[in-house]
Amino acid sequence: MRTPPATARYDTYMYGKFLNQYVERSRYQPPGYYPRGWTVFQALTHENTYAYYNSCFALNGSPRECFPGQYQTDLITEMATGTIRWVTHGPVSCGQAHSFWE
Known about the structure:
Layout: E1 13-16, E2 40-44, E3 53-59, E4 65-71, H1 72-88
Parallel strand pairs: 1-2
Antiparallel strand pairs: 2-3, 3-4
């Protein structure tokens, strides 16, 4: 595997559980807060972290969006594979190993 150049730009994506008590708004943090360093940060909100149906996510600290009747694992899979398709401009095969540096 080749080493990327020091000036290479890369993106980071997070979908799913971040912390047990993650909220998109809190009196302890500024509005729209999410951890620095993420290009896309789509975290489950604390009321629905362990609700496998009817999960709610906050995209980059924005107000939560809920998905009633949808299975949490399927939602996270769709988010992740959708991002991979978008980044690679092609289909995703979960059975193959991929290297961005080849």
